[in-house]
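A further point concerns the way the authors explain their paired sequence and structure data. Showing the layout once, in full, would remove most of the difficulty. For illustration, here is how one protein appears when written out as sequence plus structure tokens:
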Amino acid sequence: MPKNLNVLISGGSVAGLALAYWLRHHGFSPTVVERAPAPRPGGYKIDIRGAALGVVERMGILDEIRRESTDMLGSSLVDGEGRRLATMDADLFGGREGDDVEIMRGDLARILHGRITEGVEYIFDDSITAVTEHEDGVDVVFERSAPRTFDLVVGADGLHSNVRSLVFGDESRFIRGLGHHISIFTVPNHLGLDRWELMHPVPGKSTGMYSTRQDAQAKAMFIFASGALDHDHRDVARQKKILAETFAGGAWEVSRLLDSMWDAPDFYFDSISQIHMDRWSSGRTALVGDAGYGPSPASGQGTSLALVGAYVLAGELAAAAGDHRTAFARYEEEMRDFVTQNQKLAQANIKGMVVTSKAQIWVQTRMLRLLPHLPASWSDRVIGRITEAIRKAATAITLKDYRS
């Protein structure tokens, strides 16, 4: 029987749910505290590839994930009048190949939540306000619930991790901005898009719109180059004001998408940033996913890192019979190179997400127009260069079999 059975997980999204599943699988008793009042719906497109596919296969949910995949067909660059300038295959646009799967974040979270049928306690509409470690455990104070003591605490609470701030120090010590901001939210599918994405680039900015399997709704996406902005990550009103001012007067569908922003139920806005830390654990507290090593949306690997990190952390705790010192050290040893390689992807990818001049847009458009007309051997070589770095990073870890 392992020790340190009672584990508090802060965060009820992909990393937290995956960790809860694997901890329960290994005989631990996880409790998940989530700030939202219920499981979060919605979200944006995410990719599952490489080692992460092995994790969801071992969870028995790979087939269900494939059934819920976005099935995107393609993407087009459009000018200010909506004319399609270039079109590309969806998998090429997303850097996917082979068995890689694209799914909406909310759909994945729902699948994970459904996989955990018993043995996990959920505390919704609450958050941690204080953490005090002692020899026998961790005393935790909540905003609403009564104080409790747990054996271990894990922060799976994202880029702006509350647990990380409480235990490791101020966010400014660990966050590294990549010079861009991103916003995504649900809008009416007034263009009638069917599993298609449109992108309208201008120097320093890009506006997009895509639909998946729900034709009545679509997602709007805005990306723009910027330095640090003066806003709190929970101040939605201020974020919407920044976005409206930044894209004011934009061509194509920009104004209409911004009009829909004010009533969007799932507005998301944040810097495109990474988290870099020398250690992902301190005493009886550890971090997993974006909280400890967020690679940023520019990497396309945040979900895969979260799934693999949760699997490894729970597995090492089981292998060490709950000895957190041994388990946390092995967790970092297993994950460190994998994280480093995936974080490096973002530096290269961000350059293609937002171009800085009209000349670069012209070159990008001409290259995409030319690609379908190249001889197969040439086009395969071009596509291979795009996907090789992603494939190498996504498979840069060999999963141990912790299952018992």
Observations:
- The longest strand covers residues 175-188.
- DSSP finds 13 helices and 18 strands in the chain.
